[in-house]
Amino acid sequence: MQRKPNILLEKSDQFSSRIIKMYHILTEHRKEFVLSKQVLRSGTSIGANLAESRNAQSTADYLSKQNIALKEADETKYWLKKLYEGDYLNEKEYHSINGDCEELVKMLVTSVKTLKQKIGKL
Q1: 3-class DSSP assignment, residue 50
Q2: Can you say whether residue 120 is alpha, beta or left, with left for phi > 0 and alpha for psi between -120 and 50 degrees?
Q3: Which of 62, 61, 19, 63 is nearest to 42 (CA)?
Q4: Average pLDDT value for residue range 71-90
């Protein structure tokens, strides 16, 4: 069965790919292993939870996965900031990838709010 395109899922997938590439640069060239592992986990978890939400068993399950993705996006923003403050990301790198993360956060907030309104939880 063909699923309709999901821009949030597509953007999170692209973001995950950027996070993975950044992780390789951080570990191989900048010798940073702790923070980079944290951002790898949270940054790729966004898309994983959105992918999982597509097969949710209920509206509540779908909302839960969307909320988890939002929490992971917020956590990713935190780790990106720490990498920047620790001089592992330069200003251009930080603003570029953090901008993508901010976009995901905004989209997820909108998605969660809309769903909560539909089910009467807001």
Answers
A1: helix
A2: left
A3: 19
A4: 98
